[in-house]
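Support request, please re-run this one:
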Amino acid sequence: MNTLSLAFSEALSMVLRLDPVLGGIVMLSLQVSLSSVVLASALALPIGAALAVARFPGQHAVVTMLNALLGLPAVVVGLAVYLLLSRAGPLGALGLLFTPPAMVIAQAVLVFPLLAALTRQVVADAWGESREQLVSLGAGTWTSALALLVDVRYTLVTIVLAGFGRAVSEVGAVMIVGGNVDGVTRVMTTAIALETSKGDLPLALGLGIVLLTIVLALNIAASLIKEAAQRRHG
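Re-run finished. Output below.
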């Protein structure tokens, strides 16, 4: 059995026996990513819906900027958050740099444009179908936005799952603001990068297996929710 086969076998063993080192890294990754998606969703969903319903000067420019931010490099987000939280930055007194909250902020900033842009598009489509009814009922901008968010809630779940997948698989921003400190800020993606460079393939492969499983499960869940939504509207 060659070295790669031995490493893969050990990686599977680590996953199946719930190795504490691997488990700790996975749990921190899930906590950070879930927190960031909840934070980003609380802002992105209502803002995206409002952008779909409201009409105001410069709206097209705002939407264009939001769509442009979808391609924002993760390392640029990490650098911006680093400067914000560094000792010389405006929020340096909070002492958040190289802590899990800093990673949550970085991931939230990273996934916000994705959640807001996709929400805006979905709500805009629903607004086109329901505009006359909502206007006739006297619904204002925020009332209409809220009603449409409720109407497309199944699709919103798939959008949030996509945001979580983006967050949990991100490496650049969390490496910069978290520092990849063992037992403190080391998450799956940063640990995979570090352990691969060190030659510790079993742990890197084990984390890779878990990460791929999570991403696959998210895609399956999103597909099932999308089918359920289609049957509901069908």
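The first helix runs from residue 3 to 16. The chain has one domain: 3-233.
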